[in-house]
Structure formats: structure tokens, C-alpha cells
Design goal:
- It is a single chain.
- By secondary structure, this protein is of the alpha/beta class.
- Helices cover 39% and strands 16% of the residues.
- The protein folds into two domains: 42-119 and 300-318; 124-298, Rossmann fold, CATH 3.40.50.2000.
- The strands form three sheets. Strands 9-8-7-10-11-12 form a six-stranded parallel β-sheet, with helices on both faces. A four-stranded parallel β-sheet has the order 3-4-5-6, with helices on both faces.
- Helix 7 (160-169) packs across helix 11 (268-280).
- The longest helix has 19 residues, at 21-39.
Amino acid sequence: MVTAERNLCVVTPYLPHGLSASRSVEVQRALLDEWIEDVDLSLGTLWYYTPMALPVTAHLEAETVIYDCMDELSAFAGAPDALQVLERQLMQRSHAVFTGGVSLYEAKCAFHPNVHAMPSCVEADHFRTARSFTSEPASQQHIGTPRLGFCGVIDERLDLELVRGIAEARPDWNLVFVGPVTKIDEATLPTAPNIHYLGSQAYDSLPHFMSGWSVGLLPFALNKATEFISPTKTPEYLAAGLQVVSTPIRDVVRSWGESGFVRIAGTVETFIDSIAAALRQQDNAARLKRVDRTLALHSWDATWQRMQDIMHVARVHAA
């Protein structure tokens, strides 16, 4: 199936049920080749988000091959056994590698001569609208205050025992989770009268939800799946004008904790203390100006321009 919007075309293969892994690759290759021939497509850039796409596309030639390594996918639950081998092959083929954070850059730069850290950025103007909303989404209006919010995928990266401990210790606080539950059994999620799961929400509505929160939470577990993450929600919370509390995720600590924008806490007790301190702190214009000056250096437009410059140099060297 092909869907198109403006200058973006999404091609989705539909395969018969029960194909073997090798036959699945063969069919996808044939479908891809047929589509490229039909649209008379000239391949300027092959952009990979996952090494698992390599078996389907390894026969294609392009001016530039980019590996956009946003996470250490091999550390995720259910990661395919072949992923690490395919990643090494993709590294050998790539002209440039982008990583989703500094820690991930440090882990990958030994395997490629042209690796560049591209930490999570923010559409600041979009999330800044949270500072001026006077109403809230209907699904959140009934929840008492103060509200402590998390926005993102709810999976094995979250410290569910930390969440449970906070909710039990402070029944007067309400914990709000906006996002889908993936790869974990929903039955394992902590439940309490003051924990609220609001499900997936449209990107456009996220500032609306954040406008009703007092603190933005990053309650990540410290495990293999979080060792290299650089959460996009950190600058999003800050742009929304929120106080932020996080577990000691390495990239959060050095990018936002050491500068004082995010409080860092590693246990239920210290997390509660940090939230309480955040609730006591009255936001002021001076802090928001400092936040905005910093976030201006972390725009997606600036990051994309840097990526384009790197790609241009890589293309010239590959010619």
C-alpha cells in the first residue's frame, strides 16, 4: 500500500501469513524493486532507522547511505538475534551515522569513522503553548492536583516500582501517564486511585495535557534498555514550562541535570523529596528566559541543518 502527503510517500508491504523469514525478505525485495521501477525513482539517499531493513535493501545502490541510530535496539526486550550482526554490516555500508544522544555516540564511534551525536531536540514553539492554556482536555479535568505527568511510551524502560512507591507514599499527588503501553503486560502496571493512564494522544494535544501538570516526570529504570537513551520529553517538558524530575539517566544528568534544569533522584525517597522541592518552587520569568535561551540551541531545524551539512560532505567524499 502506498500513501502520500505533500512530498512524503509511505510504502507499506502486505505479506501473506506464514511466510518463512527468507521468503519474506525475497517478497519484500521484489515489491520494493517493482515500486522503484514504477515510479522511476532515483535513489539519492538510503536512510536506515533499523539494521533489520538491510536484508530487504542491501542490493540497492544510493549516493548516500545514512544510519540514524536513535536507540540501542539490541538492548530492547524481544530484539532479534540478528540485529547486532546486521548493524555491523550497515555500519560498513554507511557514509555517516547519527546517534540519538551522546552516550550512544560514545558507544558507536569505535565502529565507524563518521559518527555524529544528535541529541533529542524540541519544537519549542509548539510545547511553549502549554504555558498559556486556560482549559484542559476532558479526560484530565476530573483528576485532582497536584498532577505529576509522564508523556511517552510505557514499556520496560519505566521503573514501575518507583512509580508504585511514589503513589503509595503520597496519595495526595496524582500521577498522570499519557502514551501507549507496549511490550509489557498491562496487568503489571501499578494501579492506585492516584495513578491515571490516559492512553495515546495526538501530538498536537500534548501541550494541552502538560498545561495541567505541576511537574514532568522521567521515572526511567536503570537497565540495558535505558543505558543510552536521551529522552525527547526532557526539552519538551522544559518548553512547556514544567519543573522536571528524573532518575539518573546519563544523558539527562550531563545535558540537563548538571545545568540545574532537571532535578535528579535515584530512589523513591529522593524522588519524592525532589518532586516536593519542585512543587515548592514558584516559576519565574528569569528561569523561563534561561530555559528558552537554552532550548533555542536545541531546535529540530538547527539539527536538521547540521545533518544536511554532514550528508553533503559525506556525499562529496563518496563521489
